[in-house]
Amino acid sequence: MTYMKWALMTAAALVAMPAAPVLAQAAKTATPAARTAEPDITGVWEIYPDPFAGDENTFLELPVPNGGPRLKEPYASQWKARRADRDAKLKAGTPLADPSTLCQPEGMPSIMGAIFPLQILQTPGQVTILAEFLTQTRRILLNKTMPPDDELSPNYYGYSVGHWEGDTLVVTTRGVREDVQFFEIPHSARMQITERIRVTAPDMIENQIVIEDPDTLVEPYRVTYGYKRNDAYEIKEYLCDREDPLFKVGADGTVSMKTDAGDAAAPSDKATDKKPK
Known about the structure:
Layout: H1 2-16, H2 19-34, E1 43-47, H3 75-91, E2 118-123, E3 126-131, E4 136-142, E5 159-165, E6 168-174, E7 192-201, E8 204-212, E9 221-229, E10 247-249, E11 255-258, E12 265-267
Parallel strand pairs: 4-5
Antiparallel strand pairs: 1-2, 1-9, 2-3, 3-4, 5-6, 6-7, 7-8, 8-9, 10-11, 11-12
């Protein structure tokens, strides 16, 4: 009887032993299912509201968001003088060329202004942003650590890392080239751009951008862009040519409209080309 009781207890113990690992594995397996699904932001997005509404096939000088940043001196005086010169030439009908007019990549954060549509591709480990203008590509690496500044190679879009905080994609960007400027605003190699991208309504997303730079800014500069989904639109390859059929850039950097008669140019009162959608 004692042997039988011991045998039964041993058998019961052997059956019970795997139970803890199995339960632990089951709990581990159930964890991802319990997480909140990340919003689906894959698709084609257009700036909203559209600053070019009603002005298709024209040129338009966009205003500086929120009137511009609070800059330290001498950057503040230099930037105001540069903008005043640009405004004066615009009113005189001889607007100054900007990087887009010169067929240069927009860089960060200008690319997020979406003068042309953006396509967002949401894949495991990465969010890719494709801009129609100049067929630009920006990559956001998910759940990666930002390298030290001295390990970054400055480029147009910088180095972007991101992670999800609930329904918000939080992105940090550093390493943007100093000659890549947002509305001609100067910045240093220590500039950091933080974005918070989230769905605000069906087929609508918002990008809250905060620009920080301890060398040039008195306080963080905040800009918010809204986008509306338009998956019926197909992103096209769009490259530009310095020899544009509509306008020419003079040696002094001003833009003039070409006339039908030869290479003669007439003054223009508008500055930034916008392709109709």
